[in-house]
C-alpha cells in the first residue's frame, strides 16, 4: 500500500493523524505522512509520533521504502515503537523543515543565476550546494550572491504543476540536473514554477514565495573535479 504524501499538496502541514501499516527493522510505515523522505538531494525530515498512550516515538530520519510511494519513518534507537493498526499523531520538526524548504528553493534560483548544467546537489538544514559543469573562472561569489539575493528580495510566488511523462520527454530542456533524473513510470511528473525565473521537475518541498527565503550568502566555491564546480550557500545568520 502506498503512503499518502501530504507534503506534496501542502508543504506547510506540520502534523496529521495516520495509521501504522507496518513496523520492521527498516522503519515504521504509515498510511499517510507529512514527513519528506530523503531524496533529490534534500535531507529526510525528523520529528515524532505520539501514541494514544502518551508515549512519544522520536523519528530520527525519513527514507523511501521499496518504492518512492512508500515512506519509512526511522525511529531513534532504544525508544518505544507503535503497533500495526495503531492510530498515531505526527508532529514534524517544523523549524528544521522550514530551513530545508528555504534552502531548497534558493537552489532553484542559484541554478538560474548560474547558467550551466547541474551535476549534483545536497540540502541540509545548515547549508546547501549545487555542482555545475562550468569553468571555475566563471564563478564569482560576490556576483552570484548579489544576483540570487536580488531575485529573493523581489519576491515571486512558487507554483506546483503536473505534466505527463510524454510531455516531459517532449521538453528535455526542463531537466537541468545531469546526475538525477525525475522519476517516470507513474504517468505524471511534478514541476516547480517560479514565474519568469524557473520551471523544472522537482519533488521536494519549497516555500510559497521566494521572498520567504531571506538573504543567502555564498560560503565557498571550489572544484570537485573536471565537470564539478561546487557552489555552497547558507541562509544569512546561519551556517
Write the layout of secondary structure elements.
Elements: E1 4-5, E2 15-24, E3 27-30, E4 32-33, E5 47-50, E6 56-64, E7 71-75, E8 87-92, H1 94-113, E9 118-123, E10 128-132, H2 141-154, E11 159-164, H3 165-169, E12 188-194, E13 198-201, E14 216-223, E15 229-235
Parallel strand pairs: 1-4
Antiparallel strand pairs: 2-3, 2-8, 5-6, 5-8, 6-7, 9-10, 10-15, 11-12, 12-13, 14-15
Helix pairs in contact: 1-2
Describe this structure in words.
With 239 residues, the chain is of the alpha+beta class. The chain has 2 domains: 13-92, Elongation Factor Tu (Ef-tu), domain 3, CATH 2.40.30; 97-235, Threonyl-trna Synthetase, Chain A, domain 2 (Threonyl-tRNA Synthetase, Chain A, domain 2, 2-Layer Sandwich), CATH 3.30.980.10. The protein is 16% helix and 36% strand. It contains 3 helices and 15 strands. The protein has helices spanning 94-113, 141-154, 165-169, and strands at residues 4-5, 15-24, 27-30, 32-33, 47-50, 56-64, 71-75, 87-92, 118-123, 128-132, 159-164, 188-194, 198-201, 216-223, 229-235. The chain has a 6-stranded antiparallel β-sheet with strand order 3-2-8-5-6-7, with no helix packed on it. Strands 9-10-15-14 form a 4-stranded antiparallel β-sheet, with helices on one face. A 3-stranded antiparallel β-sheet has the order 11-12-13. A hairpin with a 5-residue loop joins strand 5 and strand 6. Helix 1 packs across helix 2. The longest helix has 20 residues, at 94-113.
Amino acid at each position: 500500500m502506498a503512503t499518502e504524501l501530504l507534503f506534496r499538496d501542502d508543504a506547510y502541514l506540520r502534523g496529521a493523524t495516520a495509521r501504522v501499516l507496518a513496523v520492521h527493522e527498516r522503519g515504521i510505515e504509515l498510511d499517510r505522512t507529512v514527513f519528506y523522505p530523503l531524496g533529490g538531494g534534500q535531507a529526510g525530515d525528523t520529528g515524532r509520533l505520539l501514541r494514544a498512550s502518551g508515549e512519544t516515538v522520536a523519528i530520527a530520519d525519513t527514507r523511501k521504502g521499496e518504492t518512492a510511494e512508500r515512506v519509512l519513518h526511522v525511529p531513534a534507537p532504544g525508544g518505544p515503537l507503535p503497533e500495526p493498526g495503531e492510530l498515531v499523531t505526527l508532529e514534524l520538526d517544523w523549524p528544521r523543515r522550514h530551513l530545508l524548504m528555504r534552502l531548497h528553493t534558493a537552489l532553484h534560483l542559484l541554478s538560474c543565476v548560474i547558467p550551466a548544467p547541474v551535476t549534483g546537489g545536497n540540502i541540509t538544514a545548515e547549508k546547501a550546494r549545487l555542482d555545475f559543469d562550468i569553468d571555475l573562472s566563471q564563478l564569482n561569489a560576490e556576483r552570484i550572491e548579489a544576483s540570487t539575493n536580488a531575485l529573493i528580495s523581489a519576491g515571486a510566488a512558487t507554483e506546483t504543476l503536473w505534466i505527463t511523462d510524454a510531455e516531459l520527454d517532449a521538453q528535455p530542456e526542463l531537466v537541468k540536473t545531469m546526475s538525477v533524473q525525475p522519476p517516470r513510470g507513474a504517468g505524471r511528473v511534478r514541476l516547480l514554477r517560479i514565474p519568469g525565473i524557473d520551471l523544472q521537475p522537482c519533488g521536494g518541498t519549497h516555500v510559497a514565495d521566494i521572498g520567504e527565503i531571506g538573504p543567502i550568502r555564498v560560503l565557498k566555491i571550489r572544484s570537485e573535479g573536471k565537470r564539478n564546480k561546487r557552489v555552497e550557500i547558507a541562509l544569512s545568520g546561519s551556517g
